[in-house]
Amino acid sequence: MRFTINLATRTILDQRRIDRACLVAVVVLAFLLAANILLFSWNFGKLRRLDAETSEMKKQLTRPLPKIPEKEQNLIVADITFYNEIIKRKTYGWLGFLEKLEAATPNGISLTLLSPNKEKGSLSLEGWARNFKAIEEYLTLLEDSENFYDVLLLSHEKEELWEQAKGVRFSLSCRVREQ
């Protein structure tokens, strides 16, 4: 039978193991302390730079703006208005508009002139038709279309260029709904 009772008066510890464990703990803690000090100094420097930039920006904001003569300011506003108008004209969807016009144009109608008037918001159309009935159908289709309104036949005239080329020349105006 084997007894596992320690009959010694003192407990014997392995001091070398304890010393190694303490040394490893001190080294790890020293490394963590150095890393925290480095991180703190980095953040503190960054904070100082940001504070300096903020104060510089505040100084720039409180500085009065330079005075621009009214004549020069009016020229700048005129240039801006001109370029905005060009941009507005460039952004208009001409392909979509022409597709809508084509969808409302029946067979037997041939358009020869398409003239938009931006100031009045109207559109002038001139063209040829085989007969007056085709013009009536065209006017009806334009009126029924959701894209055109206030369709008005301005003129029509029967013409015969030669024996095979007969038709009606017409002119009309209408308004176009904005896209």
Outline the structure in words.
The chain has 179 residues and is of the alpha+beta class. The protein is 53% helix and 23% strand. It has a 4-stranded antiparallel β-sheet with strand order 1-2-4-3, with helices on one face. The relative contact order is 0.08.
What secondary-structure arrangement, pairings included, does this model have?
Blueprint: H1 15-62, H2 70-91, H3 94-104, E1 109-117, E2 122-129, H4 132-144, E3 148-160, E4 166-176
Reading side by side through the largest sheet, how are the strands ordered? 1-2-4-3
Distance between the termini: 104 Å
Percent range of helical residues: 40-55%
Q: Radius of gyration, rounded?
A: 44 Å
- What is the N-to-C order of secondary-structure elements (H for helix, E for strand)? HHHEEHEE
Give me the number of helical elements: 4
Strand content: 15-25%
Number of strands: 4
List segments where confidence is low: pLDDT < 50 over at least 5 consecutive residues.
none
Label the structural class: alpha+beta
Average predicted local confidence, pLDDT? 87
Largest sheet: 4 strands, antiparallel
Shape: elongated
Give a quick rundown of the structure.
Helices cover 53% and strands 23% of the residues.
